[in-house]
Amino acid sequence: MPSDQKKTDEQQLLEKMAKREYKYGFTTDIETDQAPKGLNEDTVRFISAKKNEPEFMLKWRLKAFQRWSKMKEPKWAYIHYPPIDYQDAIYYAAPRKQKGLQSMDEVDPKLLETFEKLGIPLAEQKQLAGVAVDAVMDSVSVATTFQKELEDLGIIFCPISEAIQKHPDLIKKYLGTVVPPGDNYFASLNSAVFSDGSFAYIPKGVRCPMELSTYFRINAAKTGQFERTLIIADEGAYVSYLEGCTAPMRDENQLHAAVVELIAHKDAEIKYSTVQNWYPGDQEGKGGIYNFVTKRGLCDGENSKISWTQVETGSAITWKYPSVVLKGDNSEGEFYSVAFTNNLQQADTGTKMIHVGKNTRSRIVSKGISAGKSNNSYRGLVKVYETAENARNFSQCDSLLIGDKCGAHTFPYLEIKNKTAKVEHEATTSKIGEDQIFYLNQRGIDTEDAVALVVNGYCKEVFRELPMEFAVEAQKLLEISLEGSVG
Amino acid sequence: MIEIKNLKVSVEGNEILKGINLSVKAGEIHAIMGPNGSGKSTLANVLAGREDYDITEGSITFMGNDLIEMAPEDRAREGLFLAFQYPVEIPGVRMANFLKHAVNEVRKYHGQKTYDAREFLQKMREKLKLVEMDEKFLSRSVNDGFSGGEKKRNEIFQMAMLEPHLSILDETDSGLDIDALKIVANGVNKLRTKENAFIVVTHYQRLLNYIVPDVVHVLYQGKIVESGDKELAMHLEEHGYDWVKEESATV
C-alpha cells in the first residue's frame, strides 16, 4: 500500500487523539478557607493554628521553615522548568465543612459529586471493595470510612492532623525519623507547611484485613499541595496501602511537594502502591503539576520488608525517588515502577536502596515509557555500607520509546563498601517494534489497541505487584495516556 | 476470492514485483515457489498490507474490495490471514488475551456478538487440538521463548481461531522437522473447506507432499514464469530452479 496513504491515516488518528481533553479537568465550586499568599513564619503559624496543633508541632514546623529558608532548590535532576516563585503560592486551603460529620450523608454533596466524577463512589466502595478510603480534597480529609472495623483491631487510620491531636506520642516518636525536616529542599518545605495527609499505625502482630486507600486531589487554584503521610507497621504487622491521585485542569503550574514516611519494625511488611495521574499539562506544555516528592521507608527491624509500586502517568514534572533504608538484618526492599511520559512531560524518577544490615536484599524493576517530545529518566542509587555483609541487589531498568522525538535516560549509581555484596544491573532501551504492531494489525487489532497491548505486556512485571482492582485501573489509565501517542 | 492484476511493487526504488497476475478462487490451494530473492515474501507482505512497499501499478481485489485501499487490520477483519515466516515475540502479552482481542475485533467488525470468557476458552481448547498443543500454551506470552516449531504451530492455531477466507502461508515449512511439518500440514488440511482458500509460499516441494496444491506457480525475478499442477512442484524438486533461470534468460 502507498506509504503516504498510511501516513495520512496515522496523522488523522493522531490529531483526533491529541484533541482529547484531560479526562479529570474540572473544578468544584466550594468556598475555601485559605491562608494569605506567600510563605513566612506567619504562614506557618497560621497553618498550625488552623489545625489547632499542639505547641510541639508548631515548633517542629518553624524549625523546618528555618532550615528551608537557608536551603537552595536542587538542580541536579534532568528536568527543566521556569523558576518557581514560592512567595506567589497559597500554602493552605481547606474546604469549609460542617462540624462533626457522623456519616457519609452529612458530607457536602458537591464534594461527593467530585468524587463521583473521579470515579470514586465512596458509598459503593464501602460496600463492595472493602477498601477504607480516607479521601483528601485539597488539604483536609473529608470522609473516612471503615474507621470502626479498623479500630476494633487496634489499627489507627486517620488524617495526620487528627493523629497529631489524638496520638501525639506516636507522632513525636516517628514523624521526621525517616525523612528528617532538613532532608532536602522539598521535604523541608513540606515539613513547614504540610496541611494534611494520612496516618496509619498497625499494632503488633496485626495483619490489616483491607487495603488502606487515599485519593489525593488538588482543587483550589494556586494552592500548593503538601501532603504528609506516615505509616508504621509494628512487629509482625502487615499493611497494604494504596494512593491514587487525580487533579483538575489548571493553567498555572501547581506545586506538589509530598512526604511519605514508612516504618517497618521486626518481621513487619508494608506494601505501598501509587497510581499517579496529576494533570500533565497540555500539548504545548502549558499547565500541569510540578511533583516533587520525597518517599522513603525504613526497614527498622530484622526480616522486615517494604515494597514500593508506582504507576506514574501524570504531572508536568516528576521528581520522585521512593527509597528503602535496609537497616534491619535480613530486611528486604522492593521498587517496581512504570513511568509514562507524553507531550512535553518530564520525569526524573527512580529509587535508592540503602543497605545497612546483614543479608539485606533489594530488587528494582523500572519500566520507563516515553512518547511525544517527553523526557524520561531513571535515576537510582544502590548503596552498600561496610556493615551490610552479603547484601544483594538486582536492578532492571527498561526504557521503551514511542516515536523519535522523545528521550530516555538512565543514571544508575552504585556505592559499594562491602566486598561480599552482589549487585546486578540490567538495562535495555527499545523502540516499540513496528514488527509487533504489524503482527497485531494482521490479526485484526488496530494500531492504537496494538500499542496499548504491547505496552501493557511490557509493564506486566510491575502491574502484577499491584492489588487486583488497582492493576485494572492502572492499565486503563495507561491506555488513556497512550491515546494519541501513536504516530 | 482474490484477483491480482499486473501488480508492480518497489522498495526504495528497486522494483521487486514486476507485474504479477494471480487469481485464487474459493476452495483452492495455490503454491508459490521460487528461489530466494524472487519476491515470494514481498508478495505475501504486500497482500497483508505491510508498510515500506510502494505499489506502483496494478490492482488487487479481495472479496470484492479494493485491497490496496484497506488498512492491514481491516484486511485481517475481512478474512485475510498471513502466517508469518518469522512470527513476532510480544513479551508480557498472554496468548489467550491476545487471541481474545483479535477474535473479538473481527467479530465486532462483522456486527457479531463477542465471545464471553467461557465460550472462548472452549473454542481455544478445541482449536489447540488441531495443532497438538497443550493448554498451558495459552498462558504463555505471544511467541516469547517459543521454539521454531512452536512458533509455526502457533500461526496455524491463530489461523484456526480467526477462520479466515484466505490464508497466506509464508515459508511456514522453513525450520520445521518432519514431525512438526506433518502437524502443521495436518492442521491446514483440516481447516480446508470449499469456502476458503490458501496461498502457500515455499522454497521446497516438501510441504506440498502434505498440503496438496491445485495450482503451482513459479516466481522468478518478480514474475510468475510458470504455472501448472502439482507435477510442476515435483519437477522443481528434481531439477532445481536452474532450468527456470535458464528458460527465463532465453526469453
Mean pLDDT of chain A: 80
Helix fraction of chain A by DSSP (H/I, runs of at least 4) = 25-40%
Strand-pairing-aware structural class of chain A = alpha/beta
How far the N terminus sits from the C terminus of chain B, by CA atoms, comes to: 31 Å
Helix content of chain B: 25-40%
How would you portray this structure in words?
The complex is a heterodimer of chains A (487) and B (251). With 487 residues, chain A is α/β, with parallel strands linked by helices. Helix content of chain A is 26%, strand content 33%. Chain A is built from 13 helices and 23 strands. Chain A has helices at 3-18, 41-50, 55-69, 109-117, 122-128, 147-152, 160-166, 168-174, 185-193, 434-441, 447-458, 460-463, 468-482; strands at 32-34, 93-95, 132-137, 140-144, 156-159, 198-202, 212-216, 228-233, 238-246, 254-256, 259-264, 269-277, 289-299, 305-312, 317-320, 323-326, 332-341, 346-355, 361-370, 375-384, 392-401, 407-416, 422-431. In chain A, strands 5, 6, 8, 10, 11, 13, 15, 16, 18, 20 and 22 form an 11-stranded mixed β-sheet that branches. A 10-stranded mixed β-sheet of chain A has the order 4-3-7-9-12-14-17-19-21-23. Chain A is globular. With 251 residues, chain B is an alpha/beta fold. Chain B has 2 domains: 1-78 and 214-251, P-loop containing nucleotide triphosphate hydrolases (Rossmann fold), CATH 3.40.50; 87-165 and 185-195, P-loop containing nucleotide triphosphate hydrolases (Rossmann fold, 3-Layer(aba) Sandwich), CATH 3.40.50. In chain B, 37% of the residues lie in helices and 28% in strands. In chain B, the strands form 3 sheets. A 6-stranded mixed β-sheet of chain B has the order 6-9-10-3-11-12, with helices on both faces. Chain B has a 4-stranded antiparallel β-sheet with strand order 2-1-4-5, with helices on one face. In chain B, strands 7-8 form a two-stranded antiparallel sheet. The longest helix of chain B has 15 residues, at 95-109. Chain B starts with a strand and ends with a helix. The chains are: A alpha/beta (487), B alpha/beta (251). The A-B interface holds A 1-3, 5-6, 9, 433-436, 438-447, 449, 453-454, 456-461 and B 46, 48-55, 68-73, 75-77, 81-82, 84, 87-93, 97-98, 101-103, 105-106, 109, 141, 158, 162.
